[in-house]
Structure formats: C-alpha cells, structure tokens
Amino acid sequence: MAIPEGVEVRGTSIRLWFMYRGQRCKETLKGWSHTPSNIKKAGRLRAVIVSEISNGVFDYLERFPNSKKARLLSGKDGGKQITTVSELIERWLKIKEAELSADTHNATASQCKTCVNILGPDRLARSITLEDALTLRNSLLDGTTSYTHRANKKGRSASTVNKYLSTFSEIWRFAVASNYVIDNPFAVISHVKKEGRDPDPLEMDEFERLLTHPSITEQERNLWTVACFTGLRHGELCALAWEDIDLVRGELRVTRNIAKEGFRCPKTKSGERTVTLLQPAIDALKRQREITYLRSVEKVEVQTRERNKVRVDSCRWVFVAGLKNKSDSATKHYRPNGISTAWDSCVKRAGIRRRNPYQTRHTFACWMLTEDANPSWIAAQMGHKNAKMVLEVYGKFMPSQSMVQADRLNKKFGQCPIHAPFAKSEKR
Questions:
Q1: 47 lies in which domain range?
Q2: Catalytic pick among 233, 256, 355, 362
Q3: Which of 256, 316, 361, 362 is catalytic?
Q4: What's the pTM?
Q5: Is the CB of residue 156 less than 8 Å from the CB of residue 170?
Q6: Whether residue 34 lies in the annotated active site
Q7: pLDDT given for residue 415 in this prediction
Q8: Are 354 and 224 within one domain?
Q9: Residues 245, 343: one domain?
Q10: How far is it, in rounded angstroms, from Cα 278 to Cα 229?
C-alpha cells in the first residue's frame, strides 16, 4: 500500500514528520501498531497538523505532550522553553538562594524533592492539573515518608502537608508569571484542617519545684529563670552574651540567633529587639554573672539579613555548655539541642510532667497574660510584629489562676445593683 506523505514506517512503529518554525520535526506515534488502517489515520493526522501549522493554531505540546522537541518549540510566547516539573523546581530553588538561609533552602529543597517524586519529575509543568495537586495532597497525608537519616512512617502531619502545599503554590505562581504554565492548580485547593495545640506552660508550683530541687545546678536555675521570665527563643538563649546585657538599665538586647550553619541575625526586624528584664531575670543574671562573666571572649561571625554580609561579634557567653560547677573551665556556648537535653534532664529529676522545651517561651506569655500585661508589650518582648499572635496562640489563662482572675473581676465590679421587681399588671 502507498504510504501517505509525511508518514514513515519504522519497524513496528509509525512516525510523522513535518516542518515547524523552520525545523524538521519527527514524532513517533506511541501506541499505534503497524497496521494499514493506522497508517491511513496517521496520514490524516499529519494533514491536520500541517493545516494547523499553516493557520497558526498548532499547539505542539498539546499534540505531543512528552516530546522534547515540543518543550523547545511550543508555547504561545513565541518559543519560550517549557520545563518539566523537576526543571521548574530547580530554577525556582536557584532564585530562592538569594532569599533563604542555607538551612531553610536545604529544607525547602528536600520538601520539593518529595513532591516532585510524587508528581513525576519528567512531567511537563504545564500538564499538572487540579487533580494532580489534590492527589499530591492525599499522597502526602497518607503515603509513607522517604527519609534517609531517620526511621520512616506512614503519613505526615497536617501542618507539614500545608507547608508543602504553600511552597508549591508559590512555585506555580512563579511559573505563571514566567509564562512556563498557564494557571496555578495549587492556588485553589484548600489546606488540610488541623487541630491547634494549646500552649502547655509551667504552673508556678512546678517552676518552684524545678528551681528548688537539690540536683539542679546554679546555672540550670538561672537558665530556666531567664527563659521563663524573658520568653527568649532557645537559639537566642544559646547566643546570649554578656555584651548584650545591661543590668543597670535592666535591659537585654537580642542581636543574634544560632542555627545549624552558625550565628545569624534575627530573621525579622521585630526579632532584633530590646527586652525589658523583670526582676527574677535580673536576679538570675546577677547570679550567673558570678559564674561566667570573666570567662574568655570568643569572636564569632554573624550572618546579617543582607546576603553574603557578615559581622564579627566578640562574645562572652552567658550560659556555658558542659559547666559542672563554678570552677569548671568550660567556655563553649549551648546549642538548641543542648538546651533541649538539659531541659529533659532537669524536669525528669524534679519530677515534673515532661513538656516540649519550647514551653518555656509559652510559659512567659501565659504568665504575663495572667497578670494582665498588655499584649502589645508581650509581643514586643517576644519579638512578634504585633499582638495578634500573642492573642491567638498564647491567649490562655493558667488553670490554677482561674479563681484569682475571677476574684479580681468580682472586686472590680462588686455586686450588681438590686432593683425592685416590676409590679404585676392587673390587666391581662
């Protein structure tokens, strides 16, 4: 039989060729067996393609979605390269290097790798649909993790899934703005509902048991007192130096934090702040001064918020890791995991119910709210931009203080005036 123009028979497969944008293009019709009827159909398809090219309506990528040639020549933007999912992620991550810290960038890259493996790395980015986005959400929720450095488990938490979805929504916004894709399927899917966890702060009697237990060292007492009466993040506690503290004015400057890659400025301007010290924190720091104030100075590089710009700080650390007694020569600062280890050890020895170490920060906020401190002041102390998070996350009364609060209100408002009852009307 005669082979139609532009159709080639290659072994058991059928291939079309045509001219598009000055280039000779060849595409194998996958799944088309070598039969006379399919050869005729291929001829008709080739004629349609030639007609579409002639009329300026040919969509190469739609006709051949897995074609490398289509990726190079397709698109209504006059030939802008269409990328696969993995290529899109790679481009976006490269751009984000200027905005994210090394730790955050690595974590984001790991999240992206997980999602790319689910979506398919060789899928064309513009072929991702709403159904694909929903399937990704379900796979993240119910699928097995693929960690290489720790044990795997089935499923992920709602907050983790929502973080992944937010990242991919941002990536697809970038892709839309760059004309790599037409729309953003991640923008319309709802996040997974999650049950908020209330803060679990220390009760005052628990705090007293922690400080008075005979096995707790002087530095540990001072550390937990400062943590609970300032609300400092643990990275800020680790990076706290005597150069940041003015005990005469009763102030503490938060100028650095510590992350995996080293010391950094606080992420936001509100995080770089002056904390007004309450008397328990002042007393604890005075006691701690006798232990660590005269220890050696360490010069450290601190990454500023401006990329690739560092400053050098001279620091005498307030809290020293591995310190057993006042005469111990240890001089190295704590790291956040060291704070967590110390916390777990202390609460176990004191016989207190175990909590996440970060509850020291929650403790400060809840204690302050219980004592009617201004939420905006609390937010400023903790490094929040405004009081919204304080009210939403920390707005909880301590269980043991409920009656105290009620007593205060009763004293303020007193008894409600008693009015004589209305006379009953004789008329019905």
A1: 7-73
A2: 233
A3: 361
A4: 0.67
A5: no
A6: no
A7: 61
A8: yes
A9: yes
A10: 7
Side-chain half-sphere exposure of 273, counting CA atoms within 13 A: 22
E strands present in 5-104: 7-10, 13-20, 23-28
Within a domain: 371: no
The 10 Å Cβ neighbour count of residue 331 is: 16
Positive/negative CA dihedral, 405, 407, 413, 416: positive
Domain end: 361, 396, 423, which one?
A: 361
CA distance 393 to 391: 6
Q: How many CA atoms lie within 13 A of 388 on its CB side?
A: 2
- Active-site residue, from 137, 221, 234, 384: 384
Annotation says 305 is catalytic: no
Q: What is the CATH number of the domain that holds 325?
A: 1.10.443
For residue 373, tell me if it sits in a domain.
no
Is residue 233 annotated as a catalytic residue, yes or no?
yes
pLDDT of residue 409: 64
Residue 267 a catalytic site member:
yes
Q: How far apart are the C-alpha atoms of 48 and 63, rounded to whole Å?
A: 11
Q: What is the mean pLDDT of residues 234-251?
A: 96
- Residues 164 and 114: their CA atoms lie apart, in Å, by 9
Q: Match 């020569």 to its residue by tokens.
A: 329
* Confidence (pLDDT) at 59: 82
384 is catalytic: yes
Note whether 55 and 20 are within 8 A (CB).
no
Beta pairing, strands 273-276 & 245-246? unpaired
Which residue out of 63, 267, 287, 295 is catalytically annotated?
267
Residue-wise pLDDT for 109-149, tens only, equals 999 999 999 999 888 888 899 999 999 999 999 888 777 66
Report the number of distinct structural domains present in the chain.
3
User: What proportion of the chain, given as a percentage, has pLDDT over 70?
Assistant: 88
Q: Which residue has the higher pLDDT, 301 or 416?
A: 301
Tens of pLDDT, residues 159-178: 899 999 999 999 999 999 98
Please give the order of strands across the beta sheet that includes 245-246: 245-246, 251-254, 273-276
Q: Using 50, 70 and 90 to split pLDDT, how confident is the model at 6?
A: very high
